[in-house]
């Protein structure tokens, strides 16, 4: 769906185009005051209409182009009012002269009738693919230069040309509504801030042309033979139009609007450069952290001026920017719960198109910890999210973090990392007996870190999707037949694998794949999508009683699963 602001504009135009039934309301409607107010007000809004049209009888037409500032300085209003174009005009076409074998390219780079607007640039192009059904045949392209400068891409499910905002959400830079029915107008709108940057950097101004024809189609028979004359109305140097109203019959308003950036060029450029350099207006947060340089638990700000590093520590007692801050494990739930926007690994979190937190881990007390330097790199709203889970340290940083980050050594991998590594190896080797169902599963399985039963159940569900769902029953049955091992027609993948492993002396007779069976059982009963019940409660309680935490239980099962996957690999490879 396009942006909210765009959809509001579409609804506004729909309301303006509704034909009044009451004669008094109709007489007022044909004066086009509502339509003129739309153009006037929209010039100051954050979402600018670049193209709009409605079906016959045409009541709304708006189109916009860009042109060099010097072409409208000084402004020749009469010349500009002779405009004649629309986005359906081709940018270029082949041409030839009858009787001569010569073909050349004819480029349509001017607004017919207006000398001031020669060599103008269209921002929007309406295209039509002849031969396709009507609902599939029409679409819009935007000026390629504009798309490249703003690094935007067409997303059909969003009806917009988008890029990622720093928070990982889609930023709708150009929104499009194509006509779905007789009431819905076609409308293309541009977000103001990127358009202002384009105008300022190119030396262009936006010229918006509009034509509103308002009448009842069943009684309208042309504009001739009426007494009311056309008037030229100049509201300002940047907004003028021709208007004619034939009382109680019909009316039109046809004009030009010149739109320049609201902000001074220097402010537009300064804002862009700061954003590009990551130097937006900074807002800082203070975290409870372990200042190991001064050996104290204290509050440390994300303001870079309040911390130092090894190379700049002489002559001050500032805490190091590598001081760790500690958090309740719930801090991770936000990121684990949105796998489209966030990628969470064992040591880092990546927000698509935005930011990265490069060094977090979990200590023996179950606290998540990261360094002030990593928190400094987060946008202010993310810093506030982490602040809401900030705690005093209950233990130091993890052994893995100490080895990796301070001694430059490799630490042992976690049991889950071992399982994922095997799955990745199987996927890359394209083995016939196991297939990776979804690439994203390699990144989506995480160790449950909180006391949430839902997170615990979801972790086992994702682990089952990654590992168990990948086994190819048909291929495994073929392997069993090759070695004359009998199996039941209703046996599923785990039962088949157990028979295969027993037949290859990898398991004792009657022994099962304990770890994979546990994963399958918890997935089926205790996953977050399964109704709660006494069996699910018993499973969760038993896990806590035996292992203390859900994370310890999960890792214990992963150790068993890793060994079983190696047995399976040995038997099938």
How would you characterize this protein structure?
Helices cover 34% and strands 22% of the residues. By secondary structure, it is an alpha+beta fold. Strands 1, 2, 5, 8, 9, 10, 11, 12, 13, 14 and 15 form an eleven-stranded antiparallel β-sheet that branches. A four-stranded antiparallel β-sheet has the order 22-23-18-24. It has a three-stranded antiparallel β-sheet with strand order 19-20-21, with no helix packed on it. The two termini are 48 Å apart.
How do the strands and helices of this protein lay out in sequence?
Blueprint: H1 4-16, H2 23-29, H3 33-42, E1 47-53, E2 61-68, H4 77-80, E3 92-96, E4 103-107, E5 121-122, E6 124-128, H5 134-137, E7 138-142, H6 144-149, E8 153-155, E9 160-164, E10 170-177, E11 186-191, H7 192-202, E12 204-215, E13 231-236, E14 239-246, E15 250-259, H8 265-276, E16 286-291, E17 296-301, E18 324-327, H9 333-336, E19 342-344, E20 349-351, E21 356-357, E22 360-362, E23 368-371, H10 372-376, H11 380-387, E24 390-391, H12 399-406, H13 415-429, H14 441-444, H15 453-466, H16 473-482, H17 493-503, H18 514-526, H19 534-547, H20 550-572
Antiparallel strand pairs: 1-2, 1-11, 2-5, 2-12, 3-4, 6-7, 8-9, 9-10, 10-11, 12-15, 13-14, 14-15, 16-17, 18-23, 18-24, 19-20, 20-21, 22-23
